[in-house]
Amino acid sequence: MCWEMRPQLGTTRRAIWRSWPVLCSPHKLPTSSHSAKKAAMTTASLPPSENNKKKSTVIVISGPTGAGKSRLALEVAKRLGGEIISADSVQVYRGLDIGSAKPSMAEMSVVPHHLIDILDTVDDYSAGAFFRDARRTTQDVLDRGRVPVVAGGTGLYLRWYMYGKPDVPQSSMDITSAVWSELVGFKESGRWDEAVQLVVQAGDPKALDLSENNWKRLSRRLEIIRSSGSAPSAFALPYNSFDEQHDTELVESSADAKCEGRKLDYDFFCIFLASPRIELYRLIDLRCEEMLADTGGLLSEASWLLDIGLHPNINSATSAIGYRQTMEYLLQCRQNGGESTPREFFKFLANFQSTSRNFAKRQMTWFRNEKIYQWVDASQPFELVVQFICNSYHDRDARVVPESLELKRESCIHTTHDHKTYRSENKVFRGNDDCSHVLDWIRRTQRK
């Protein structure tokens, strides 16, 4: 890492965050024309074998739900001759279109999209599967001379994609079956806390940190213990190692230290698109309303999931935000003979909106600690944001987002007080009459 990029002791985290993406690029950011000439001379003087090692650039665009990352990725890909690789854990499923904000057929005809509609809703998908599929697709895109643009908000998928997946042993069919037998009784009777204690006693105290009823993650933790005799925490995580090494280098590196980012397989240029929290909450609320306004959208998709025999929260597809809440609401309507009141509908809508906002809050918390991302303000002129990304792709020495486009990470901190004091202001469903067409649709379709 070059000396001029090293923050002095006592500098703020902001200095680290702003310099991190540049440090992870094969090209350092010169601080003067003299530095630029020196960097060019150094590169030119390298033997041919070193010059040929320049890594291919992969653009990664992420952000919380509702921030507009898909629109941004589409425009960037159009201008750069790119192809989009979806990093969304719900868009992989066929038939789940509205609730996952899947790109339209028209958009996919303009720019090729990958890892969309690749699974049936009865299947499960994992971060490991995404790592395998996305890495293979990335190389295919590069081999065709195109630009990979990875877009999505599933944080674990993106972390493993860039840094590598943990070297955790795979479970055999026998182990998977045995673990299922151990947990199925707890799951069917809803005894989540008892199941967690089983895994804790087996040797994994961190199972206590899992979100409630995340049976998939709990099962996987127990599978690792049964397969290896060790808890998941015993296995090294590539991201953690990389993060710790960089924190040390940023404070202690010398003039001739090398950026640890060179160990990444690609030159990742990462953007996190976000809005100030209250503005984001408003966007999310409206998005939830729009998904329900047309009964042929999320309501119909959730009804179809019930019709094919699925139930809320039994696998990845039915646990997805929006689908789980809508399926639960429609199940209640079916139990009431296909009837629902405006009060019940508005209670469901409020729950859908609140859950979506909480998800965005978790996304922001996750990505605030991912130093490789530069944060961009979604409220700034769209064209300027697109130009910055395209220019940075062509000029690796210009990758620090200008302050006019930057969104300060601390401005997006979501506190408990924010969530308690925030009040939704519906734009579509303002009163009982506005949901009458939804209640009519429920009477016609949910008398099962």
Strand arrangement within the widest β-sheet reads 3-2-4-1-5-6
User: What would CATH call the class of the largest domain?
Assistant: Alpha Beta
State the share of residues found in helices, binned by percent: 40-55%
CATH architecture of the largest domain: 3-Layer(aba) Sandwich
Order of helices and strands: HHHEHEHEHEHHHHHEHHHHHEHHH
Shape: globular
Give the radius of gyration: 24 Å
Looking at how many chains there are and whether they match, the oligomeric state comes to single chain
Tally of strands: 6
Using the coordinates shown, work out and report the CATH topology of the largest domain.
Rossmann fold
What is the CATH homology-level superfamily of the largest domain? P-loop containing nucleotide triphosphate hydrolases
How many DSSP H or I helices? Answer: 19
The helix-and-strand class reads alpha/beta
Describe what you observe in this structure:
With 448 residues, the chain is an alpha/beta fold. It has three domains: 3-168 and 237-276 and 366-416, Rossmann fold (3-Layer(aba) Sandwich); 173-234, no CATH class; 278-360 and 422-445, no CATH class. 51% of the residues lie in helices and 7% in strands. The chain has helices at 13-23, 33-45, 48-51, 69-80, 105-110, 127-143, 155-163, 173-188, 192-202, 215-228, 238-252, 277-293, 298-307, 316-319, 323-335, 342-368, 382-394, 416-421, 436-445, and strands at residues 57-62, 82-86, 113-114, 147-151, 267-274, 373-377. It has a six-stranded parallel β-sheet, sandwiched between helices. Helix 5 (105-110) links the parallel strand 2 (82-86) and strand 3 (113-114). Helix 8 (173-188) crosses helix 10 (215-228). The radius of gyration is 24 Å and the shape is globular. The N and C termini lie far apart (65 Å). The relative contact order is 0.14.
